[in-house]
Specification:
This is ADP-ribose pyrophosphatase. The chain has one domain: Nucleoside Triphosphate Pyrophosphohydrolase, CATH 3.90.79. About 20% of the residues lie in helices and about 35% in strands. The chain has two helices and seven strands, in the order E-E-E-E-H-E-E-E-H. It has a four-stranded mixed beta sheet with strand order 4-1-6-5, sandwiched between helices. A three-stranded antiparallel beta sheet has the order 3-2-7, with no helix packed on it. The radius of gyration is 14 Å and the shape is globular. The two termini are about 25 Å apart.
């Protein structure tokens, strides 16, 4: 019998704390699926989720981040068109100017209420959940 398990990933909501209103960072993906996304990626074998989040931020936008908290887990089987993934989302802070690197074609800084229209995966939902949490202290509930 062959087992097929979801693949663990991390996504990072990075608040730029050296700017007014603590804007967050999005990248335009270089590889399919194309569109805008939060920085993040696959967890390597033998790597902790926290290490993966810090590594992915550095690889994609060139910034050192400080993880503040584990925000939420997103696991809908269709959240990634390439395969079934489970994403552990972290909130992090950083300072400086992000630079698109690795899998990022471009990088953008935006306020959470100015969400780009071409978001990949379920990142629109993640950002909406984050906005509710950050501004109204409403943490997202469990989804089935």
């Amino acid at each position: 019998m062959t087992y097929r398990n979801p693949t663990p990933t991390v996504d990072i909501i990075i608040e730029l704390i050296d700017r007014p209103h603590r804007p967050i960072i999005a990248i335009e993906r270089l590889n399919p699926p194309h569109g805008w996304a939060l920085p993040g990626g696959f967890v390597d074998y033998g790597e902790s989720l926290e290490t993966a989040a810090v590594r992915e931020a550095k690889e994609e936008i060139g910034l050192d981040v400080r993880l503040i908290e584990q925000f939420q887990v997103y696991s809908a089987p269709d959240r990634d068109p390439r395969q079934h993934t489970i994403s552990i989302v972290f909130i992090a802070t950083a300072t400086g100017n992000p630079i698109a690197q690795d899998d990022a074609k471009t990088v953008s800084i935006f306020n959470p209420w100015e969400i780009p229209s071409e978001l990949c995966f379920d990142h629109g939902q993640i950002i909406a959940d984050y906005f509710q949490y950050r501004h109204y202290q409403i943490r997202p509930g469990i989804r089935e």
